[in-house]
Design goal:
The complex is a heterodimer of chains A (243) and B (282). Chain A is of the alpha+beta class and 243 residues long. Chain A has two domains: 80 residues, Gyrase A, domain 2; 151 residues, Cyclophilin-like (Cyclophilin), CATH 2.40.100. Chain A is built from five helices and 14 strands. In chain A, strand 9 and strand 10 form a beta hairpin. Chain A is elongated. Chain B is mainly beta and 282 residues long. Chain B has two domains: 166 residues, no CATH class; 110 residues, Beta Barrel (Cyclophilin). Chain B contains four helices and 20 strands. A seven-stranded mixed sheet of chain B has the order 13-20-12-19-16-17-14. Chain B has a six-stranded antiparallel sheet with strand order 7-6-9-4-1-11, with no helix packed on it. Chain B has a five-stranded antiparallel sheet with strand order 2-3-10-5-8. The model of chain B has no long low-confidence stretch (mean pLDDT 95). Classes of the chains: A alpha+beta (243), B mainly beta (282). The interface between A and B is medium-sized, with 41 and 29 residues.
Chain lengths: 243, 282
């Protein structure tokens, strides 16, 4: 299916391509296919292409005098794209400890949403989440797919410091803080994994389009995994998504 | 090497930025006033992406532990070597034990101190630009020792200063093109944007510049989308936020204007209380 896209010069060296204003899996899929197709076409003047929910930003290496002139090429590419261009996506198994030591807001959500804490944990860890893109902080995954029974508005006043690895819910989204930072989402657990590792060529293991599945661990498993990560012995589990 | 005897208000190592890592949520970073940054490196014959010190409002005090050449560009902050005034925009030879200091700010907001061959601090993801969570240090502090490559001493008399266009520091006009959500603004707001003067507020830094004046905003937020340095966002409270080099890579506020590259450089030299006016060049 072809969407009606809007092409807008955004700066002297970039073009924004927009899909309809929706957060939807079929839009993300088309965004990623088109993005991969532009990348595969090896246009020398393009520096990088980034995506969000329903948009792509094509950044050129240099300032372009007539940025409008680049649009027909991109439009042509949209109609020659095929789903073969899509990169292989993976489903990552992410351990989360929902112990009260980490799940600072579990009680509050439980009272507000009238679900027991164990129901919240089970709703949160049974869903299949999709990584839409990485933004806000280096390594912060924007995840879609939260069960609507867990939708909670952001906190009225943000915490000055949220712990590294905190798993949180904000509005209709869930996410993990890759490093300590201020944050306004409700914290329900903590993952011992490194979501942003500067020592790797690709600092984030997950990419836009990948799936994330959380599985609950207890405090002793959390400690074990933490130690394994420090010594490099931890094997992060993942599988190729077949669709 | 160069030793920091005393830090200024905010001294950071900057280069041409961290391009190509935005898909991981990493900001572009890099010298705020890319015009002055490029000028300093070209005067020294450095690679165009060589790392420099960017100093904000108050300059640092530096001691040289090797002979080399330096060049100071950007804001005029009365630089001196061993107490003797030196000029901006010219190659300056320095000897072992020379001390570079700064005085009162005359104009501009950010000074660039380039050294022959560029500062050789640790490179992280193709860039030495300091940023929290990416580089070990986020700003230079007293006692820091910065590695350089060194250059043999040359008599400074043979150097001549480059005459620069000082309107770069004094012009009020900030050139913009329309942003992706511009057309959603009503006519009255579109007119206000270009007819009103805006005063740089104290909440202005390497992430964003803000103004004292607010506008009435009736626009809803957008689905989180991509932003760039130079993107002008309109917040729910009617604040204009001009994103700068250290901005996040995505944002959810309407993007109503986009600064030209040259105007990002000009705005970077603006200081608390300075007035600007947007000029649409579409």
């Amino acid at each position: 299916m072809d969407f009606e896209l809007k092409y807008k010069p955004f700066s002297e060296h970039s073009i924004l391509i927009e899909w309809p204003a929706e957060i939807a899996l079929n839009i993300l899929e088309d965004v990623l296919i088109f993005k991969a197709h532009i990348e595969n076409s090896n246009i020398k003047s393009i520096l990088q292409i980034n995506n969000a929910y329903n948009s792509i930003l094509v950044i050129y290496k240099y300032t372009i005098d007539k940025i409008y002139d680049e649009i027909p090429t991109l439009k042509g590419l949209y109609f020659s794209r095929t789903s073969k261009a899509k990169r292989i996506t993976r489903r990552w198994k992410v351990p989360v400890c929902y112990d009260e030591e980490f799940g600072l807001d579990l009680d509050e959500i439980s009272k507000e949403k009238k679900h027991s804490i164990s129901d919240i944990i089970s709703l949160h860890s049974k869903a299949d989440y999709t990584v839409f893109f990485i933004g806000f902080l280096p390594g912060f995954l924007y995840l879609g797919g939260l069960d609507e029974r867990l939708y909670v508005p952001r906190k009225k006043s943000p915490r000055l410091e949220v712990r590294k690895g905190a798993v949180a819910i904000g509005g209709q989204q869930t996410g993990i803080y890759p490093n300590a930072s201020p944050g306004g989402w409700h914290i329900i657990g903590n993952s011992p994994l490194e979501f942003f590792d500067l020592n790797k060529d690709r600092p984030c293991f997950a990419n836009s389009g990948d799936k994330i599945q959380f599985f609950p661990i207890d405090r002793s498993e959390y400690q074990t995994i933490l130690t394994q990560i420090e010594t490099g012995a931890y094997q992060l589990e993942s599988e190729v998504v077949d669709d | 090497m160069i030793e920091l005897l005393k830090a200024g208000l905010l001294d950071t190592i900057q280069d041409s930025g961290r391009m190509g890592f935005q898909e991981f949520g990493i900001p572009f970073s890099g010298a705020m006033d890319n015009y002055s940054y490029t000028l300093a490196n070209s005067i020294l014959g450095n690679p165009s992406d060589a790392a420099v010190i960017e100093s904000t409002i108050v300059g640092p005090k530096l001691k040289f532990h090797a002979d080399t050449s330096i060049c100071i560009t950007g804001a005029q902050m009365q630089p001196a070597i061993n107490g003797n005034p030196v000029r901006n925009n010219i190659e300056i030879s320095v000897k072992v034990n020379d001390v570079l200091s700064f005085g009162k700010r005359e104009y501009g907001c950010r000074t660039y101190i380039a050294v022959a061959g560029g500062f050789q601090t640790k490179m992280v993801m193709n860039s030495r630009s300091m940023y929290k969570g990416i580089t070990d240090d986020v700003r230079l502090k007293k006692g820091d020792v910065l590695p350089i490559v060194g250059r043999n001493y040359v008599d400074s008399k043979m150097f001549s200063s480059i005459k620069i266009d000082t309107t770069h520091f004094y012009k009020h006009s900030i050139e913009v093109t329309i942003g992706p959500e511009y057309e959603k603004l009503d006519t009255h707001l579109k007119e206000l944007l270009v007819n009103q003067e805006f005063t740089i507020s104290m909440n202005s830094n390497r992430m964003a510049y803000q103004f004292n004046e607010t506008l009435h905003n009736s626009l809803d937020g957008i689905i989180t989308s991509l932003v760039l340095p130079g993107t002008v966002q309109l917040t729910p409270s009617g604040q204009l936020m001009v994103l700068m080099r250290d901005c996040q890579v995505t944002g959810g506020y309407p993007r109503i204007l986009q600064l030209t590259e040259a105007s990002i450089h000009v705005l970077s030299q603006k200081f608390l209380g300075d007035m600007i006016r947007f000029k649409c060049i579409n």
